[in-house]
């Protein structure tokens, strides 16, 4: 049995700019209209794998920390304005020794979620270095979102929310604090990315642009333990 799916790829135009192209193809046991690649980046132990597992399975990976080796991925299909949007999410290893492996994948990503841990100052300080790498290796029009993870750990917090907000403003990227443990803002982060990518791909010339910052602000307070309500 085969079901129809449409995948969205990013092609280079003659003048070098990126252009999204819809492609139809068939797949077994999976239906979607558009597909995008999203990468999770950030220092080791900031919670990339946990955020992904929270989004994909609605569970928290507590207990012993097992570092990701190289790169791993999971798919999730979400509904955006009556379209099935497949996010193929690449979970990268934060450890320095895997950096050359992960660089090779940056180019294919249409969106990057860049995480730090609000209880770990160096992971926040390293965000500028991550952004430099992103500008070196990723597509020019890649969607970037900054996430301050582990927001449930209020007693251990060392990075203020406003520091995250200010850094995000400086780079012109959307920002929110998340918790893979409680689920706060995790679904919202991926949904905002899915909406932005879907709008970029399907937008008509006279249609207003999707405002990701406004969308996040309007939804932030509605997002509870189990995702968007
Ligand atoms: N309290 C709390 N702990 C978290 C949260 N997210 C992750 N953790 C814990 O932080 C540790 C690291 O989480 P991972 O998701 O494995 O970190 P990672 O960024 O994928 O690490 P690498 O694979 O080395 O890049 C684990 O012990 C998790 O249980 C969170 O939101 N809150």
Compact summary:
The chain is α/β, with parallel strands linked by helices and 229 residues long. The chain has a single domain (34-222), classed as P-loop containing nucleotide triphosphate hydrolases (Rossmann fold), CATH 3.40.50.300. It has 7 helices and 10 strands.
Q: What is the architecture at the second tier of CATH?
A: 3-Layer(aba) Sandwich
The overall strand count is 10
**Proportion in β-strands:** 25-35%
- Report the structural category: alpha/beta
Distance between the termini: 35 Å
Spatial order of the strands forming the largest sheet: 4-5-3-6-7-8
- Unreliable runs, pLDDT <50, ≥5 residues? 1-28, 224-229
Overall CATH class: Alpha Beta
Structure annotation, total helices: 7
Q: Given the C-alpha coordinates, what overall shape results?
A: globular
Q: What is the CATH homologous superfamily assignment?
A: P-loop containing nucleotide triphosphate hydrolases
Number of domains: 1
Helix content: 25-40%
The pLDDT mean sits at: 85
CATH topology: Rossmann fold
* Element order: H for helix, E for strand: EEEHEEHEHHEHEHHEE
For the largest beta-sheet, the strand count, sense and barrel status come to: 6 strands, mixed
Provide the gyration radius in Å.
17 Å
Which ligands, by name, code or SMILES, are bound? guanosine-5'-triphosphate
Protein name: small monomeric GTPase
Organism: Mastacembelus armatus
EC number: 3.6.5.2
Family: Belongs to the small GTPase superfamily. Rab family.
């Amino acid at each position: 049995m085969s079901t129809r799916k449409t995948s969205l790829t990013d092609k280079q135009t003659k003048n070098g700019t990126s252009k999204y192209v819809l492609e139809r193809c068939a797949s077994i046991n999976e239906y979607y209209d558009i597909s995008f690649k999203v990468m999770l980046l950030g220092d080791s132990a900031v919670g990339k794998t946990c955020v992904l597992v929270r989004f994909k399975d609605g569970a928290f990976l507590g207990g012993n920390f097992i570092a990701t080796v190289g790169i791993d991925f999971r798919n999730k299909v979400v509904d955006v304005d009556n379209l099935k949007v497949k996010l193929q999410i690449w979970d990268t290893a934060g450890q320095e020794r895997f950096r050359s492996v992960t660089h090779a994948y940056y180019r294919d990503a249409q969106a990057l979620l860049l995480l730090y841990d609000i209880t770990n100052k160096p992971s926040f300080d390293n965000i500028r270095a991550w952004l430099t790498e992103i500008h070196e290796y990723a597509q020019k029009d890649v969607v970037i979102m900054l996430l301050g993870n582990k927001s449930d750990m209020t007693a251990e917090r060392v990075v203020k929310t406003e520091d995250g907000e200010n850094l995000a403003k400086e780079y012109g990227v959307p920002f929110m604090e998340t918790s893979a443990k409680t689920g706060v803002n995790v679904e919202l982060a991926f949904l905002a990315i899915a909406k932005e990518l879907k709008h970029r791909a399907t937008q008509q010339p006279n249609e207003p642009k999707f405002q990701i910052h406004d969308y996040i602000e309007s939804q932030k307070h509605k997002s509870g333990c189990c995702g968007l309500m």
